[in-house]
Beta sliding clamp (Crassaminicella thermophila), 732 residues
Amino acid sequence: MKIICNQRILSSSINTVQKAVSSKTTLPILKGILLETCGQQLKLVGTDLEIGIENYIDAEIISKGAIVLSARILGDIIRKLPDEDVEIEVDMNNNATIRCANSEFTLIGQPAVEFPELPTVEESDAYKLPQDLLKNMIKQTIFATAVDETRPILTGVLMELQEESINMVALDGYRLALRQANIKNALNNKAVIPAKTLNEINRILEEENTDVEIFFTDKHVLFNMNKTRVISRLLEGEFINYEQIIPKEYKSRVKVNTKSLLGSMERASLLAKEGKNNLVKFSVRDELMTITSNAEIGKVFESVSIELEGEDVDIGFNSKYFLDALKIIDSDEVYLEFTTSVSPCIVKPTDHSNYTYLILPVRLVG
Amino acid sequence: MKIICNQRILSSSINTVQKAVSSKTTLPILKGILLETCGQQLKLVGTDLEIGIENYIDAEIISKGAIVLSARILGDIIRKLPDEDVEIEVDMNNNATIRCANSEFTLIGQPAVEFPELPTVEESDAYKLPQDLLKNMIKQTIFATAVDETRPILTGVLMELQEESINMVALDGYRLALRQANIKNALNNKAVIPAKTLNEINRILEEENTDVEIFFTDKHVLFNMNKTRVISRLLEGEFINYEQIIPKEYKSRVKVNTKSLLGSMERASLLAKEGKNNLVKFSVRDELMTITSNAEIGKVFESVSIELEGEDVDIGFNSKYFLDALKIIDSDEVYLEFTTSVSPCIVKPTDHSNYTYLILPVRLVG
C-alpha cells in the first residue's frame, strides 16, 4: 500500500475515528486504526466492538492495501506534522513509513486481516432527518440517561420513529426528558441507542440542515453522515412505557423566564450542594417564586418573578435535575406544572410543545 | 461592617487572593479570605502562611469592620451574581449577609482577629522593574526549577540584583536557565524565591511596562503591583555557584531556526517518550542536523537545516529538556554550542545575550 494525502484532512479523519477506539481494551488490535485503500479514497476505521466509526478521505492511491496502526501514536504524529502532503507506504512486513517534509517515521503495524469487521447494516429504508435537528434532540435528552448500569436499558435513549414524527426519550428514575419532532418518513421503528453512541454521533454531526441517514437491523443501528458512518449495537430489552408516567393535568402552572430561573437555581445550588440531595425549596405565591436552600455554612434566598395560574405550591427538588434541563431549553420562557408536593413537576417551553421534562420532587420533612 | 461594591470587581479580587488559599490546610481559618475595610477601600487577603496575597478594591464603606469568609463558597457565590452592586453586611456574631439584585445569602463567618497577620516588610529601598519584563524573566526560568524537594533550594529561582543588572537563575541538576536584564537600581541583593510564589506573581503581573516594586527582608520578599501585594517567605540556604557550571568556550556551534528545531523535536519526542529517558540523538554534519529516536513501536528520522561552525557532533539528550527551552525562546534563531558528547550543550538566542540555557547530555551507549 502506498498513498498520499493532506496532513490536515488525515489528522481530522484520525480524530473522528479515534473516538471509537478504547485505550483500555485487552485486545491489542482494537487500540489501532485500520487504514485501507478503497477506490480513490482512503478509509479509516476505529472500533471497540460496541461502536464502530468509518471515515473516508480523498487520497492519491499509488498502490492498494491496508494496515492497522496504533491510534494514539499515529494521531499524535500526524497532528504534529506540517500542513503538507503526507505519504504512507506499507511494506510486506506491515512496517509503515510515513514521510512529510523533513520527517520520516517508521511504525510497526499489525495486519489488516486481524482487524474485526464491523457488523453489516443494509442501507435500504433510510430514516432521514437534518443533522442539526438530530444534534439538538440528542442534547436535549442524553443528559437524562442513567449513569449506573443496574438497569442497562436506561443507559440509552429510546428512539421512536413514526410516519409523521420522531420521539427521543431518556429517563433515569428521577427525571425524564422527551423531545419530539415532526418528520415525515415511511418507516415505523423503535430502538434504544446507547448514550455513548449518541455522544459520539453528536460530536460528528454538523450544525447544518443536510440530512443524516439512519438504518436499523434488529441488533444494530447505522448513522450515515456523508463521509462518516457510525455503526453501533442497540440496547436489548423493553423500554419503560414512559407515556403513562407523564401527568396529563396540573393544579398550578407557573410561567417564568428561563434565564432568571436558571441564574437563581445556579446560585441556590451553591449552598444546596453543600448539604444532602442538593435540596432546594420552591415557594410559589402569586407573582413571586422564592427558592431557598440551607447548609451548615449558611443559607440562600432567591426570588423570581412569575405568573401563577392555580394554587400556591411548596415543593422541594434536587437542584441538579432542574439545572440540567434549564441549561438546554432554548425558549425564553418555560412553564412549570405542579399537582401536589409529592407528584412530578413538568417543565416545558411556553412557545412550542416539542419538549417535555419531568422531575420527581424530594419529600420535604416538617 | 457594611459595604457596597461592584460584583465584577469583587469577583476578580477574590479570584486574585484565592490563589494563596490552600484547600488542603489543616487550619480552618486559612480556608477563608479576610475582608476588611481600609479607609475608603475594601482589603481582601488570602494566605497559606508561605505566601500571602492582598488586594484592594474601591467600595462604599457604610460601616467599618472585618470578617473571614470561606474562600471557595464566597468565590462561587460572587461569581454567579449578576454584574450589579453587591452589599455585604456583617453582624455581631460574624454572620455575613450578601445582597445583590434578587439574591440574599447568609454565610457563617469567622472572626477577623483569628486570621494570621502577614509578615511585615518595610517598603523602603524598592527595586523597580517593568511588569512585562519580570513576567518574561519568570517564564524563561521557572520551568527549570527542581520539582522534587530533596534539595529545597533548587525549588526556587535565584534573583541577583546588581546596580546595573538583574539575573534570574534556576537549575535542577539536569539543566540550567539564566535570564539577565539591564536595569539600573541602587540596590545589591540576592535571594531565592519559591517557584510557587513566582507562579502566582506571574498570573497577577500585567503585560505592560508599569513598574512592580520589590522589597526584601532577610526572610521575606514583597511584590507590590499597584492594587495587589504578594508577600512570600524566601528559601533558606546557599544557592549553587552557577557561573562556574556554564562553559565559556565551545568546539562546535550550530545556528538553527528555533521553530524548525522545535517542530522536529516535538515529533521526535513522540517516539522518544515511548522509550526510556526521552532519548533523542543529534547528528550534526555540515549543513544538516538529523534528530533520531527509537522505540519498540517504531523510529523517527528528522532533518533540520543548520549552519555549522566547527566539528561534527554526535550527542544524545532528554528531549523534554530541549523542548522546555525552545518553547520559551522568543528569538527566530538559536545557537547550540557543543564541546564533547559528554559535556553540556548551551542554547542561546542569536540576537542577544540575555538568555543562556544549559543542558546535560545523555551518554549514548555503543
Q: What stands out?
A: The longest strand of chain A covers residues 298-310. Chain A touches chain B through 31 residues (CB under 8 Å).
